[in-house]
Write a structure and sequence with these properties.
The chain is an alpha+beta fold. It has 1 helix and 8 strands.
């Protein structure tokens, strides 16, 4: 009997300890949600039709940037070398185009973002080659 008495006291004490621990856990509820999201990065220009590039202001439409990369992203304009007095208007920002290179980074974002903004290409003269955008993430 003495053995059952001590064992019964041990079981009762352990149960009481477990229940008191659960009561403390219930006093402060918490919720943890985790998941995996694929990295999605896209850049595009929405315009009815891309114009033939001429000297002066070339309205390209709306630049849409969507990237959830935690390290950010870049958007690069590839262009012929030798463009002088040329720049990109991105909403309220002007980005000069390098005349000594064939590419210019026009967006360098160090965090994820979603943006839509008007884009215009300003050229002193018509370019003698192709102009295109690329995305780096």
């Amino acid at each position: 009997m003495a053995v059952f008495g001590k064992l019964g006291l041990f079981v009762f004490g352990t149960t009481a300890l477990i229940l008191s621990g659960q009561a403390n856990a219930w006093a402060r509820p918490s919720l943890t949600i985790s998941g995996r999201v694929p990295t999605v990065c896209e850049v595009g220009i929405s315009s009815p039709s891309l114009p033939q590039f001429n000297g002066g202001s070339n309205n390209l439409g709306t630049l849409t940037e969507l990237c959830n990369n935690v390290d950010g992203y870049t958007v690069t304009l590839h262009h012929p070398e030798g463009l002088t007095d040329a720049w990109i208007d991105l909403g309220d920002r002007q980005v000069p185009i390098s005349s000594r290179a064939t590419e210019t980074v026009i967006v360098d974002n160090d965090e994820p973002a979603y943006r839509e903004r008007p884009v215009r290409l300003i050229l002193a003269q018509a370019p003698g080659g192709t102009i295109r955008l690329s995305l780096g993430a």
